[in-house]
């Protein structure tokens, strides 16, 4: 009988202890290394963790394996469920939040040796091969030729995908008030006309201002928010009916239909995939204090 693999949880860089309170971290840059091309490793959280706003000298790719990561840069927020990575360019200030019991990869890329995908964060495809290569590269005793080959292949695999998981959080009033109310309660079902009366504008004026500030019509922006919140709740293991109610659907079947139309899968299937780890981790070679 072949030897049984050990519990992989012990090989991850651990963050926090089981608690509902968020652990706040002040990130550090990865160490300087003249031969650096790609570095990083796997992490897991036992409680919510917030990495305060910071920037790196390197490009970075965050890859959720289970649970959900949220990245904020300026007015934009990216909610990253499993299989949706985010490429963050060097020098861009950003903050990161990981939910309780999340597992993810943090990958740093030397700008001189990696692809430049532009001045803003970009949602990227994350294949099983990319994940395996990153885990493979955590090995300390890999020959240089093999390491360089694996690094080149991993970098080549990074490609932008659509649709993006970005949500713009406008700061223009009165749109900002509406947006923050909806962030606090995505199940709020007030119509654009009701919100217009609430802030003292005509429906047409609020619609025009909202679209200008957020880049989307009100209804589409709220749907995008609800789907991201739904993915976050499902990633934490919530029941589909509970999630449907939390994001404003009185009918679970209606929520299932919309979720499937927007994501290509059912809420139940998404939850099951999000709660499983897609790749067996390699021994931890992570960078303490460095994420996001």
Walk me through this protein's architecture.
- The chain has helices spanning 128-136, 144-157, 175-184, 192-199, 203-214, 218-235, 240-246, 252-263, 267-274, and strands at residues 13-15, 23-25, 38-45, 49-54, 59-66, 69-73, 76-80, 84-88, 94-98, 103-109, 122-125, 166-168.
- The chain is of the alpha+beta class and 292 residues long.
- The strands form 2 sheets. A 6-stranded mixed β-sheet has the order 1-3-10-5-8-11. It has a 6-stranded mixed β-sheet with strand order 2-4-9-6-7-12.
- α1 (128-136) packs antiparallel against α2 (144-157), α4 (192-199) packs across α5 and α6 (218-235) packs across α9 (267-274).
- The model is unreliable at 1-10 and 277-289 (pLDDT under 50).
Mean pLDDT over the full residue set: 82
Strand-pairing-aware structural class? alpha+beta
Task: Supply the number of helical segments.
Answer: 9
| Biggest sheet architecture | 6 strands, mixed
Q: What gross morphology would you assign?
A: globular
User: How many strand segments?
Assistant: 12
* Whole-angstrom Rg: 20 Å
Distance separating the two termini: 41 Å
Percentage of residues in strands: 15-25%
SSE ordering: EEEEEEEEEEEHHEHHHHHHH
Question: Could you list the spans in which at least 5 consecutive residues all have pLDDT below 50?
Answer: 1-10, 277-289
Walk across the major sheet and give the strand order.
Answer: 1-3-10-5-8-11
